[in-house]
Amino acid sequence: MKQQFFTGFILLSLAFTSCNGGNNSNENSATVTDKKEQLAKDEMYTCTMHNEVMGSKTGECPKCGMKLVKQKMTDDQMKMMKEGTYIKPKE
User: Fold this and answer.
1) Residue 33 pLDDT > 50, yes or no?
2) Which of 10, 18, 32, 89 is deepest in the core (most CB within 10 A)?
3) 33 and 52 within one domain
4) Residue 4 in this model has a pLDDT that exceeds 90
């Protein structure tokens, strides 16, 4: 009798654990996708010809019309960002 109770308890525990694990994996995969789309702290979309044009998402350079590309910010770009002297792209 004790062995049957113990076996039942183990099976129920596994069932609850597997149900919770399924929900967490869906939430985790959505979170991972969101993180892939987010920029790192030192990344920005910038024009390859005009480094003063910076944006948080894709767009076009207002000076030359080129598509902005994601790249790590340089020290000069970080300074411009802090001072607010950068140029925002066309969306």
Assistant:
1) no
2) 89
3) no
4) no
Q: How far apart are CA 43 and CA 54, in angstroms?
A: 10
Residue 89 lies inside a defined structural domain of this protein: no
Domain with 73, as residue range(s), is 43-83
- Separation between Cα atoms, residue 62 and residue 1, nearest integer Å: 78
In terms of pTM, does the model score above 0.70?
Answer: no
Residue located via tokens 């609850």: 16
Q: Which two tokens stand for residue 5?
A: 């109770």
For 13, residues 6+ apart whose C-beta sits below 8 A from its C-beta are none
Q: Same domain, yes or no, for 52 and 22?
A: no
Distance CA 6, CA 73 (A): 59
Q: CA–CA distance from 74 to each of 43, 51, 53, 54, 65 (Å)?
A: 9, 9, 12, 11, 22
Beta strand pairing status for 69-72 and 54-55? unpaired
